[in-house]
C-alpha cells in the first residue's frame, strides 16, 4: 500500500510538472530557448534554409533542410543512380563520359552556389569530382546535373570548385602534380618536372555553360584548397599548397619537412587580360564536355582536344607565394576580402594574411627569394595576425558576417569561434567527432547568414544506433546567433560530406520547377500526343514510343520482339501535375528502372536473352490503380516470324 501511494504521488508530481511546464511555455515562453524547439519544424511547415552537402565517395550531392536536418533529395552528379536511372538511361549516360571512357563514380568534395556581386544568387551549384577530375554544374531550378566538364592535366581535383564573385569562373586546382602533358617517365624524377595545373573555367552568365579559359601551370606542389578574393580582393584567387618539398614517396614524413609551405595568390584578372591579348600556349589535351539539354531531356558529350596553358613566369605580377605554416589545408577569405586564412593542419595556430599588406609588399618589391621564378613574399610582411587557438589540427574556416570566424579542429574535435582583427578566441564547442568542414549558409560570400553552422564530422562512433562496422557520417547543427555557440542537433549524412553550401530557402523556392511542359518536349523519340505511340523495327533495333498517364502504359502489349534484338523503350510521361512521376522496369533489364518526371522522356535499352512473355510495370506508386499499371512483351526465338504488333487500348 505504501508503495502504491508513493507511485500515485510520484505520478501526480510528474503530471503537475508537465502541466506546469506547459503553462510556462504558453505564458512566459520559458521553454522557447530549448534546443529541441529550435530545430523542430512542425508537420507541414518548411525549413528556413537549404543545405547542400557533398556526398564524398557517393559521388553525389545531398539536399537537407535546416534547422530540421531532414534530407530532401540526393542529386546524382558523378555516380550512376538506379533510384532515378541517372547514368543508366540513354539520355544521361553521356553525362558520365570522360577521356577515360565511361566513369560512373567520383569523389565529390566542395559544392559552391553561384554568386552575383559576391552574394548568393541561387542559380546553380557547382561541385568537383576529385578522382577523375571533373566539375559539374547543377541547375537549382530542377535540382538536376546540367553539365560536367572534365579537367585535363589535373589529378585529384581537390582545390575546387570555388567560384569568383560574379561567377565569372569556377576554379579547379590539382591536388597531385603530374607530368604535363602526361607521359611515361620515372616517378622519382618528379621534382622539378611535374606540374600543378590551376584551371580557370569560365561560366556563361546567361546559360551557365562552362569552358576552360586557361590553365596555369604551377610548380609541382600539391594544391589543396582555394577561395576567391572578394570585395577589395576581387580579381585574386588564393590556393593553399603542401608538399612544397616535392616528395613522391612517404609523404606523411617527407612532405612535412618545410616549416612553411605557401598560399599561392593568383591575380586572375591579370592572366585573363594576358590571354585575351593572345598570351598563353595552346596544348593538345583530350577532355570531355557533357551538357544536358532540358528541352530534349538529353545529354550530349563532346570531346575537346586543346587547352590554353599559361606559364606563370611569363605574366609578371600575376602570381606570388605567401609563406604559411605548416602544410596548410583550408584557405578561406573573409566576407570583406581583407583576410586570407591558412589553416596549417600540423600547427596549433591559425595564420591570417592581410590583403592590403600583401599588395603593399608587392608594390614595395619586398621578396624573400623565389620558387621556380615565382616571387616569395616575406611572412612578416603579409601577416595580419595569428590566432592562438589552443586547438589542434585546424582545417576550415567560415564566417558569420558579424566579424567572427569559426574554425574546425580535426585533432582536438572542436569548432572555435574567434574574432577577425583581434584574433581573440571567443568560444569553443566540442564536435562528435573529428570535424572536417563546416558550413554557414552564405559563409563563402560577402553576405553570410550567420544563424547556424553545420559541422561535418568524420567519425560517428557512438552517436547513433550501431549499423554494423559502417556508420554514416554525422553532422551537427549549432545556433550561432548569440555570443556562445549552442549545439542543437545531430543528424546523419550520406557518403562523406566534405564541404557544403547553404542558402535561405526563398532564394530557391520561387524558381523551383514543378513539371516539364509537354509542349516544350523536344526529345527526338517523345510521344507528345495520345495517339503517337508506336513500335518501329529497324533491323535488330526496336524503338518503342511509349506514353504513360495514370494508370496506363501505351502500348501495354507488344509482340514480335526476338532474342538478339536491342529494344529501346522511349517513355514519355504525359502527366502535367507536380510530383507525379511514373517508373518503368522490365524483367531482366540489365540496367536500372527509369523514373520519368511529368513532361519528360527517358529511354531504357533492353536486350532480351530468353524467349517468353515478360512483364513490365510502373515502379512509382502513382494512383490507386498503380498496381494495374503494367504490360507484357512477348519475346520469340531469333529466327521466328512473329509479327510485330502492339496494343493501343482500342
Ligand atoms: S577536404 S576535411 Cu576534401 Cu575539403 Cu578538408
Ligand atoms: Cu505509374 Cu505507378
TrEMBL record:
EC numbers on record = 1.7.2.4
List, alphabetically, the Gene3D superfamilies matched.
Cupredoxins - blue copper proteins, YVTN repeat-like/Quinoprotein amine dehydrogenase
Q: Name one GO molecular function term.
A: nitrous-oxide reductase activity
InterPro entries found in the cross-reference section: Copper_CuA, Cupredoxin, N2O_reductase_N, Nitrous_oxide_Rdtase_Sec-dep, Nos_propeller, NosZ/Cyto_c_oxidase_sub2, WD40/YVTN_repeat-like_dom_sf
Keyword check for Oxidoreductase, yes or no: yes
Write down any Gene Ontology CC term. cell envelope
Please give the Pfam families that the UniProt record associates with this protein: nos_propeller
Q: What is this protein called?
A: Sec-dependent nitrous-oxide reductase
Q: Which organism is it from?
A: Flagellimonas aequoris
Amino acid at each position: 500500500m505504501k508503495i502504491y501511494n508513493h507511485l500515485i504521488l510520484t505520478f501526480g508530481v510528474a503530471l503537475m510538472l508537465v502541466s506546469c511546464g506547459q503553462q510556462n511555455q504558453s505564458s512566459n515562453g520559458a521553454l522557447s530557448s530549448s534546443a529541441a524547439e529550435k530545430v523542430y519544424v512542425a508537420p507541414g511547415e518548411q525549413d528556413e534554409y537549404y543545405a547542400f552537402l557533398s556526398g564524398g565517395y557517393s559521388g553525389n550531392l545531398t539536399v537537407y533542410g535546416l534547422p530540421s536536418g531532414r534530407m530532401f533529395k540526393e542529386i546524382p552528379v558523378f555516380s550512376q543512380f538506379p533510384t532515378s536511372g541517372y547514368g543508366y538511361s540513354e539520355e544521361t549516360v553521356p553525362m558520365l563520359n570522360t577521356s577515360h571512357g565511361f566513369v560512373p563514380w567520383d569523389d565529390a568534395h566542395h559544392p559552391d552556389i553561384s554568386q552575383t556581386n559576391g552574394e548568393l544568387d541561387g542559380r546553380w551549384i557547382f561541385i568537383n569530382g576529385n578522382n577523375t577530375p571533373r566539375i559539374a554544374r547543377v541547375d537549382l531550378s530542377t535540382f538536376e546535373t546540367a553539365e560536367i566538364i572534365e579537367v585535363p592535366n589535373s589529378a585529384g581535383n581537390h582545390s575546387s570548385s570555388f567560384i569568383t564573385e560574379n561567377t565569372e569562373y569556377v576554379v579547379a586546382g590539382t591536388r597531385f602534380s603530374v607530368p604535363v602533358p602526361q607521359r611515361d617517365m620515372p616517378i622519382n624524377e618528379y621534382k622539378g618536372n611535374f606540374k600543378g595545373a590551376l584551371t580557370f573555367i569560365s561560366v556563361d552568365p546567361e546559360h551557365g555553360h562552362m569552358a576552360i579559359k586557361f590553365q596555369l601551370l604551377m610548380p609541382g606542389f600539391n594544391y589543396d584548397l582555394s577561395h576567391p578574393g572578394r570585395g577589395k580582393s576581387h580579381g585574386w584567387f588564393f590556393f593553399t599548397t603542401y608538399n612544397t618539398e616535392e616528395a613522391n614517396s612517404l609523404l606523411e614524413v617527407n612532405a612535412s619537412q618545410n616549416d612553411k609551405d605557401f598560399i599561392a595568390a593568383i591575380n586572375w584578372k591579370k592572366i585573363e587580360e594576358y590571354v585575351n591579348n593572345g598570351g598563353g600556349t595552346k596544348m593538345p589535351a583530350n577532355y570531355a564536355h557533357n551538357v544536358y539539354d532540358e528541352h530534349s531531356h538529353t545529354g550530349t558529350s563532346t570531346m575537346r582536344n586543346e587547352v590554353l596553358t599559361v606559364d606563370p613566369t611569363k605574366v609578371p605580377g600575376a602570381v606570388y607565394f605567401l609563406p604559411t605554416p605548416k602544410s596548410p589545408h583550408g584557405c578561406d577569405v573573409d566576407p570583406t576580402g581583407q583576410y586570407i586564412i591558412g589553416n596549417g593542419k600540423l600547427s596549433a595556430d591559425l595564420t591570417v594574411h592581410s590583403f592590403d599588406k600583401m599588395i603593399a609588399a608587392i608594390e614595395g618589391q619586398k621578396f624573400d627569394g623565389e620558387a621556380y621564378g615565382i616571387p616569395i613574399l616575406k611572412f612578416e610582411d603579409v601577416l595580419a595576425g595569428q590566432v592562438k587557438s589552443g586547438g589542434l589540427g585546424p582545417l576550415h574556416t567560415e564566417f558569420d558576417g558579424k566579424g567572427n570566424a569559426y574554425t574546425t579542429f580535426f585533432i582536438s574535435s572542436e569548432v572555435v569561434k574567434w574574432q577577425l582583427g583581434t584574433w581573440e578566441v571567443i568560444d569553443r564547442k566540442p564536435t562528435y567527432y573529428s570535424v572536417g568542414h563546416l558550413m554557414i549558409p552564405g559563409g563563402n560570400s560577402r553576405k553570410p547568414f550567420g544563424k547556424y553552422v553545420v559541422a561535418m564530422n568524420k567519425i560517428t562512433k557512438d552517436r547513433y544506433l550501431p549499423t554494423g562496422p559502417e556508420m554514416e557520417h554525422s553532422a551537427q547543427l549549432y545556433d550561432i546567433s548569440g555570443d556562445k555557440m549552442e549545439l542543437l542537433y545531430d543528424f546523419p549524412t550520406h557518403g562523406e560530406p566534405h564541404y557544403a553550401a547553404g542558402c535561405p530557402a526563398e532564394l530557391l523556392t520561387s524558381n523551383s520547377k514543378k513539371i516539364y511542359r509537354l509542349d516544350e518536349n523536344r526529345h527526338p523519340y517523345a510521344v507528345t500526343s495520345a495517339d503517337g505511340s508506336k513500335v518501329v523495327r529497324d533491323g535488330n533495333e526496336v524503338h518503342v514510343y511509349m506514353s504513360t498517364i495514370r494508370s496506363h502504359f501505351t502500348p501495354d502489349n507488344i509482340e514480335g520482339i526476338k532474342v538478339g534484338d536491342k529494344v529501346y523503350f522511349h517513355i514519355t510521361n504525359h502527366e502535367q501535375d507536380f510530383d507525379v512521376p511514373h517508373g518503368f522496369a522490365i524483367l531482366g533489364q540489365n540496367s536500372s528502372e527509369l523514373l520519368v518526371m511529368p513532361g519528360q522522356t527517358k529511354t531504357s535499352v533492353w536486350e532480351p536473352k530468353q524467349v517468353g512473355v515478360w512483364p513490365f510495370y510502373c515502379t512509382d506508386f502513382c494512383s490507386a490503380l498503380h498496381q494495374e499499371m503494367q504490360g507484357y512483351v512477348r519475346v520469340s526465338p531469333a529466327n521466328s516470324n512473329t509479327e510485330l504488333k502492339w496494343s493501343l487500348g482500342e
